[in-house]
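Give me structure tokens for this 55-residue protein.
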Amino acid sequence: MRKVIAAAATLAALPALAHEGHGLMGPHWHATDTFGLLLVGGLAALVVWFSRGGE
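Here you go.
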């Protein structure tokens, strides 16, 4: 669980790396912005799924 929290905290800082006008609070999105968000969400779901220990 600690790794999941650490990964979530790290990923939460990613919008700070976006140039002006991009990121979750920016005025517009690109297809790659949406794809990246979906990819991160999917990876987070896989981490949670596999961390359950086969339950």
